Description:
Blueprint: H1 28-42, H2 47-61, E1 64-70, E2 73-79, E3 84-90, H3 98-113, H4 118-131, H5 137-154, H6 159-178, H7 183-186, H8 189-210, H9 217-225, H10 231-242, H11 246-276, H12 297-313, H13 321-342, H14 347-366, H15 371-377, H16 384-395, H17 399-426
Antiparallel strand pairs: 1-2, 2-3
Amino acid sequence: MAARRSKVPPSSGEFVRQPMPAASGAPVGDRLLAQFARTLHEAGAPAQRLEGLVTACAERLGVRASVFSLPTWIHIAVDRGDGQRSVSIRVDPGSPKLAVLESTYAISDRFMSGALDARSALDALEKLEASLRRPPVGALVLGYALFSAGAARFLGGGVEEMLVAFPVGALVAFSLALARGRRERELLSEFGGALVATVAAALAVMFASWSGHAASLPIVSLAGLVTLLPGLSLATAMSELSTRHLACGSARLIGAISTLAVVGIGAALGQTLVQRAGIVPAESLAPEAAASGALDGLTAAALVAFAGGLALLFQSRPARAPVVLVACVIGWSAAQFGRSVVGVQFAPFVAALLVAGAAALYARWRREAALALLLPGLSFLLPGSIGFRGVQGVLASDTAGGIETTVSALTVAASIAAGILVANAIFPPKRHL
Length: 433
């Protein structure tokens, strides 16, 4: 059985339907396993969770399956005792889609409990895939704008930075939307988005100063392009490496580092352009890491904006937005607690332990996917901005400092992975999502 290969692979941020052909003689169970794997991959599930769920479904079918997942390839070998059948699927790296993860979890749960047979489960997955569409441009723009506004606060900004970062995030999203549909343009979307974010931030800060409102250019710039940074990919890669998924973790880590370099070069080019145009003086785009401070009205508003942006970017159902908000509150609170108890060095480990523990308890209580709470909750801990500062240092000829900062980003990602592992050991998941 073989999956149909698309002439133009889907972009990493989109869910593009590529139906699995009903190959002659292919058992329904084999097609079900392949459909589960591909749907989970495109919805952003880590390798260990994808492989675990598909293997569990194979056991439910009474067969043995070997699953091998990479960011761009999935291979499944099924042994029914009379020979081995295999399927290979060419995919692009997936991005978080909470609605798809939750629906897939529900289908797998019903299949594992016997409420659905293989044919019904396959039909449900295909129906789920057929119902998915690209997010509207308006939702994409609003999501990026809200996320950037909220991120500005947690990067150390105030009201001015949040207001100025809002249109910058919207412009970045609009530039990404223009890249849709053409593979050549999509491959340059991070570079173009970083360039747009840097130039737009400089212009927005300049216009704000003319109106009597001073905003920090480094904070606004980083808040505008923070959605482009592969912080989640770095943390996922370290998590996969720590669970012995070495090939997938290594490939994802290299991809994240490449994305960091592309975003850094785009931002550096934008910085050079605005300096040559005389818009702003020479200034680093990356501010020093700042604690988000105590909870006040502005921070609460930033949490709501941040969670609203995440709900749109992670393609959550509108009814599930409160869950995303709760996850963000837990993540922010865990980060604050970690800093106050063990200091900045070990805060990511403690915070990830608390977030992953809360996600595991939520999954047991609600019988839903733990990733629905885990992914938004980890957003406050991700090391993307630290890695970006490292790339900026290298581009600014501060090689030693840049490498040191990049290593710090990897250390934070490893700490997050360790916290998740400890939480899973304390609260063993009853399901693989």
